[in-house]
Amino acid sequence: MMSDKTCKHFRILYVLGLLLSFVSLFLEWYIYQVYDSHRSLKSYWSYNPITGWSTVFSENSTLNNTLKPSTFHIPITLTILYIIMLAVSAYTVIFRDVEQHEELEKLTINGYANIFLLMLMLFYIFAFPVFYLVPNNLYFPFLHVKDKDANLVYQYSIGPGYCLQIFGFIFVFPYAIFYYYTVTGFRSQKNSAKNAVAQYIKAVQDPVDMDKLIANEQLKLKFGDESFDILEELESYHPQPIKKRAG
Amino acid sequence: MNYELIDAKLKTLIKVCKQTQNYKKLAALSLVLVGNVLDEIGVKLGIRPRDKDAHETIFHYMTLINSILQDNFKMILFQEDVIESVKTTELLFSKHKGNIPMEFISETYKLYYDFRKLEIPNLFEKLDVEVIAQNSEMRAYSLLSGVSEQTKRKGSDQKLKQVIVHGFKEQEIDMQKDLNEAYDKGKFEKMITLKNAKVALEQHEGGKIVLRGRLKDNIIYQRSIPHIFGYLMIGLFLLFFVLGLSVAIQTIYHPKLTAQMSIFSLTFFGTGFFFIMLYRQYFKKGGM
Questions:
Q1: B87 in a domain, yes or no?
Q2: Does B46 touch chain A (CB under 8 A)?
């Protein structure tokens, strides 16, 4: 069925999105380069949310150190939380498939976890340029600035890590919303409902032990025992004389 | 319940009781069995079981079932002569402490088998949303619909619901007539389904879609799967909107960049707008 395949494809896309988002955390999110008029690289700095700024030049390179952008740090706790949510979400989608699970109510928390992950992803995509880059005079997404006085060319650009984060968000979004919608929009009718009703009926009915009744009668037939009291045996049936209702 | 086993044992018991001339036992058992089957009928219809502690008689309980069915479905399950027959047997049983004529015992067993044949549908199993799905294109739930759009749709949904409920009522009246002439399990089952569907429609706000069986087999779920493409459009819109917003905020910080950044603003907001229009055009009307 086409719908089955659609769901499966988006699920695979979701897992791929999680993977991209995870990998993105170890790649460069922002690149800052400075060239001279001869297109010779004078400074190179790349930013990663875990390691911060790093460069390909040696620490002794004075010009490179002078041109280093302002230092800023994305809280490491946020990154750890993000990694945890990625793991939780991957577990949810791989091991708690919404189509296979019998009790959808138990998946509600997973649905909310997926939405929370989406929020975190969107926060990274939005907060990284707005809260960290722009206040530190690092331009977003790309900018090429020529400084004629110093004879230098500045290049500001987002890195592969940030791009992967964007792709991760696109891949994760549809299935996360679909999962949330399904677990909150549907409710399983528990298979035990029918049994529960049957058990209740059994509990309210008068117990009838046919085998005992037969055995007693057979004993009576064999030994002529007349001491058996029918109303005790079928103790549940004790009708009272009908009283006339007042009015 | 294994009725075949019960019947086999009952046959043996009747045979032995005939030999021992213990008709009291057969009389008491007949009333217990009738009481049990009536309890089953009552519970399945959502009525309380017979109050044995208060010594509620069987014929009173039958009257209660009839009155509840009369109130809810405008039909009666037990004819007056049947209730009278049970009443006579019960009164005689109480008066003579179980010593009742054989014809009354036979009549009670006959009634027991008649009641068993009624095959009352289980009220707790009959809330079937597919009835609603088959009768309407009603939107089940919308996560990301705009408030104003939702309000508009709410109005049209209400009108649609009224039409559906009216259709249900007409069908119900026809079935009530038929059921009062002769009991039919299928019709009664359908009437309960219609009633539940009607209640579900009237109380649908904030409710969830009840599933019977696997999610994959549910018609509403199957119809909701293509909406995932709509969610993709929303995701793309959100992404480009956020990117555009980031660029816009940057130009507020650095107004001198406005000219350079205008191409990015235009691209991001334009692409976001394109995707939201795509969503509105092809997916929102589908009833997400």
A1: yes
A2: no
pLDDT band at A151 (very low <50, low <70, confident <90, very high): confident
Write out the residue range of the structural domain in which residue B182 sits.
Answer: 124-150+158-213
Closest Cβ–Cβ partner in A134, A200, A214 for B13:
A214
Measured between alpha carbons, how far is residue B50 from residues A79, A176, B6, B27 in Å? 63, 50, 22, 19
Which residues between 189 and 218 in chain A have a beta carbon less than 8 angstroms from any beta carbon of chain B? 189, 193-194, 197-198, 200-201, 204-206, 208, 210-211, 213-214, 217-218
pLDDT of B288 > 70? The answer is no
Q: Is A245 on the interface with B (CB under 8 A)?
A: no
Residue B220 lies in a domain: no
For residue B38, give the amino acid letter: L
Averaged confidence pLDDT in chain B: 77
Residue range A2-193, CATH number = 1.20.140
Give the C-alpha distances (Å, rounded to integers) separating A172 from A175, A223, B40, B239.
Answer: 6, 81, 50, 12
Are residues B18 and B109 both part of a single domain?
A: yes
B116 and B9 inside one domain: yes
* Nearest Cα residue in chain B from A104: B215
- pLDDT at residue B249 greater than cutoff 90: yes
Residues B199, B94 share a domain? no
Residues B178 and B275 in one domain: no
Residues 6+ positions from A235 with CB-CB distance below 8 Å: none
- The domain limits of chain A are 2-193
Residue-wise DSSP of B133-148: HHH-------SS--HH
**In B, which residues are within 8 Å of A3 by CB distance?**
222, 225-226
A29 has pLDDT over 50? yes
- A170 contacts chain B (CB < 8 A): yes
Q: Which residue has the higher pLDDT, B139 or A221?
A: A221
Percentage of the residues of chain B whose pLDDT score is greater than 90? 19
Domain count, chain B: 3
Give the best residue of B38, B48, B61, B231 to mutate against chain A (max A CB count within 10 A): B231
Domain boundary among B190, B213, B236: B213
> Which is more confident, B175 or A229?
B175
Using CB atoms, pick whichever of A129, A141, A239 lies closest to residue B55.
A239
> Are residues B134 and B90 part of one domain?
no
- Angstrom distance (rounded) from CA A41 to CA B58: 99
- For B1-14, letters b (16+ CB in 10 Å) and e give eeeeeeeebbebbb
Q: Which of residues 258-277 of B touch A (CB under 8 A)?
A: 260, 264
Decide if B11 is inside a domain: yes
pLDDT confidence band for B119 (50 / 70 / 90): confident
pLDDT classification of B207: cutoffs 50, 70, 90: low
